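Whether sequence alone determines local backbone shape is best considered at the level of individual chains. When preparing material for the folding task, we compiled for one chain both its residues and its backbone structure tokens. The sequence in question and its structure tokens are set out directly beneath this paragraph.
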Amino acid sequence: MNDLKETLNKHAFRFKKQFGQNFISDGNLLKSIVDASGIDENTTVVEIGCGAGTLTRALAAKAKKVYAFDIDRDLQPVLAETLSGLENVEVIFRDFNKINLKEFEKEIGEYTVVANLPYYITTPLVAKFLEESDKVQGLSIMVQEEVADRFCAKENTPEYGSITAAIALKGNAKLVKRVSRNLFYPRPNVDSAVVKIDFQRGKIAVKSEKAYRQTVKCAFLSRRKTLENNLVNFFKVSRETAKKILAEAGVDEKARGETLSPERLAKLSDVIVDNGIS
């Protein structure tokens, strides 16, 4: 921790709250993140929010290549020092959420994401990979603890929601490790957790991924309302049509979205496609 503080102070670095900057300095935690990711000398890694480069250096020791993204150019002198001598690291000062993912993937091929993500970009970033990526093999990401619980939740639990179902279509999410807020600098207000998402495209067969995403949004439109009501409100169909869709999908008309597993949501989305609604 002291080495990290000294390096940041030497370069007069000031934390920016809007970028959600909380850096890791604990060597054991860094090692456990890298080990859990399963990367090796053949792996290309994309790191988003590389911060002061502590995780970047740990990744570079194992990976073939690390593309380290950060939005804060004030970190440039810090990273020049902390990543000195590493020839397999390329630091890119860009907002990853704004890059053309298809074009980037054409350049780098298959890859794994390993990152201590700024909390404010976690869900939109995961959604970007789910909806746009052809080449990502997995995500090993440090996220806010309650978000980790949502990513890995099962149906019929308060944590289960649209992002859970979206992840389940493309892969398997596992909570690897819970992490105390005391292992970050500066110390955040909440604890974190490492989640590993292994992509398995085609895991749940659907007639239309777009229709599945729309169905998931519909199902969780209002958690207190029945699926029947959400279908009427989201797709602007008659109540009779909503009842017909639910009957064809084998779903009780009084059921709520959080009671349906990803597989049952997939069945519902296929019926919606068959009825020409989405």
Remarks:
- The beta strands are 23-24, 44-48, 65-70, 89-93, 111-116, 136-144, 171-179, 184-185, 192-199.
